[in-house]
Write a structure and sequence with these properties.
This protein is α/β, with parallel strands linked by helices. It folds into two domains: 3-133, Rossmann fold (3-Layer(aba) Sandwich); 151-214, Arc Repressor Mutant, subunit A, CATH 1.10.10.10. It has ten helices and five strands, in the order βαβαβαβααβααααα. It has a five-stranded parallel sheet. It is elongated. The N and C termini lie far apart (42 Å).
Amino acid sequence: MSIRKNLFIQHACMYTREGIKSTLSRLSCGNIDLTVIAEKKYLEISDYLALPGTDVDVFILGLQNTYDSYGNTLDFIIKWLPLHYPQAKVIIMAQTLILGRLKDYLSGLNNVSAVLDNAITINELSHYLQDTILNLPDVRQKSKSTTPLTHQEIKVLKYLLKGMPTLQVARTMQIHPKTVSAHKRAAMIKLGITSLHSLIQCQVNLNMMDNLLTQK
């Protein structure tokens, strides 16, 4: 049976994009026909608008350590793709050490097949690409689906990660301190962490929370 797939590639690093295309070229043989329909350095809103009507099966997206990149990419994955390409698969490439436990949150999203480190080897990348393209069931890095964080949970986490005491968070959000604690516990359960220390790795995680909040 012949397999034909169209792919959209976005990554800031030219060498990474070339490596992905080279890997796809090696996988595209015999009854597998892989076509890169678009290649972008950055993901812009104009790219979204140009896509509807174009057949895309797999999106390979680079999540860069900048505020704008997180905003555009998360908006694209969480809101835009499920609406316009509900069947498409997404592979995210990022510095997973910086993402920390937020990697689990992203990999649990329904349309995300894998969250890979930028330093992944060509052989590993080839494995994930092949699994995604062939729709093999073991491509996901975790079987448990993500339960989306609520608006209030994200807001509480963002304030707490910025060092704001619980009482101040309660006053700012005009809710009871016990409600703040309840939102914190619920969010940590969804993220699979036992303390906020797991998220306090760098400013990038605060940017992630800011941008998750804008998706609500």
